[in-house]
Specification:
380 residues; alpha+beta; Porin; 2 domains; 2 helices; disordered N terminus
Length: 380
């Protein structure tokens, strides 16, 4: 009953929480090459937000029609991940809320992302894992081509991403230092499609734009917290038309922390810091400007706060475990048992080293005492 209440809580706050599509075993932006395992389900809800007050940066006094404004970005998304097979996960990610700064200000609901993740293929003594993920973006939101975030063309977009993970401890991968690399290709698929600017003017895309996506994540786990650092960004291989907002390359550095409250419940807190330039290449002579050029606004958010909540749901079937599954559970318990033995052995080894040092010091003291006795006897 407690877990059902938490799941309902996650669904209810999804109207505020979200993030670009992620799920299964992952960091904020980077997928692990591991899959969850057959029959497991996780529910992940994330929010990221940014705000910026406009400023007049021109020379002299602001014009009479100048008025300050506060721009914001709040994105809310939920990811439901299902382990279909031991090596295959399905991830469905509806974007619940998205600020657009159009006349209606937001998409509610926004686009839907669907991914198939094939992974958990190990090599090099199980220290390395590899996999691939295919993602589709379905344009169910009302508006597209809005500023401050990744480009959304309004077409059915798709991507292919390769994943590589390295774990320092092949026997306890989730409890060891790990490195994760993602490299992918995204096609916006917008050629011939009408793209709207924020004032409602219509422009038709003349080509399909595509980009290289990359991310690198490092995880240092402890018993209660996972400390994580990511670098993620895009490089356009084919730039979109110049009436598109957010048509520049970007790169973010994202430190974050995951609090493992329970074996099936964790919470994330992090921040994205943009390290790429603030260049803006949109052709504002063609389209209505989002803001007066005298407003000091970035093309992408200079920072974003990330918050997330992850619930691992038990296998969706209530059938009795097979003998093989029972043996697997026993093996997991034996691994935990042997890990404790190793920890105890390490502590015992430290104690033994201290005893050896005390023994050597005692032997040295006895030799010095014996030498002192001989000196005293010779003096007599």
């Amino acid at each position: 009953m407690k877990k059902v209440s938490l799941i309902l809580l996650v669904l209810s706050i999804s109207f505020l929480y979200s993030q670009p599509p992620i799920g299964s075993k992952s960091l904020l932006h980077t997928h692990s090459a591991q899959t969850m395992g057959k029959g497991f389900v996780t529910l992940y809800s994330n929010m990221n937000f940014f705000t910026r007050a406009t400023q007049f940066v021109g020379s002299g006094q602001p014009p009479q029609n100048f008025s300050a404004a506060n721009y914001w970005l709040v994105v809310g998304q939920t990811s439901l991940s299902w382990g279909i097979l031991d090596h295959l996960d399905l991830i469905i990610s509806p974007r619940i809320y998205q600020d657009t700064h159009y006349s209606n200000e937001y998409n509610l609901p926004g686009d839907i992302f669907a991914s198939l993740k094939l992974g958990s293929y190990s090599f090099m003594e199980r220290k390395f894992y590899t996999g691939v993920i295919t993602t589709f973006r379905f344009p169910t939101g009302e508006k597209h081509n809005y500023p401050f975030v990744e480009y959304a063309s309004g077409a059915v977009e798709y991507a292919f991403t390769g994943m590589l993970s390295y774990f320092m401890d092949p026997y306890l991968p989730d409890r060891s230092l790990s490195f994760h690399l993602n490299l992918g290709w995204w096609n916006h698929n917008e050629a011939g499609k009408t793209v709207y600017d924020y004032r409602g003017k219509e422009f038709k895309a003349t080509k399909n734009s595509s980009q290289l996506q990359y991310s690198l994540g490092i995880v240092y786990p402890t018993s209660m917290f996972d400390y994580r650092l990511e670098i993620e960004g895009i490089t356009f291989l084919n730039e979109p038309d110049d009436f598109v907002y957010s048509r520049e390359n970007y790169m973010y550095v994202s430190p974050s922390i995951r609090y493992n409250a329970l074996s099936w419940l964790s919470a994330d807190l992090g921040v994205d810091i943009r390290v790429s330039s603030d260049k803006n290449t949109t052709n504002y002579t063609k389209v209505a400007e989002l803001a007066n050029p005298d407003y000091n606004l970035p093309n992408y958010c200079s920072w974003r706060v990330q918050m997330g909540l992850n619930i691992q749901i038990l296998p969706i079937t209530t059938r009795r475990l097979s003998s093989a599954e029972l043996e697997r559970e026993k093996f997991k318990k034996r691994v935990e048992f042997f890990q404790k033995i190793v920890e105890e052995r390490d502590r015992t080894k430290d104690v033994q080293e201290e005893l050896e040092k005390l023994k050597k010091e005692r032997e040295q003291a006895e030799r010095e005492l014996e030498e002192l006795k001989q000196i005293l006897q010779e003096e007599k």
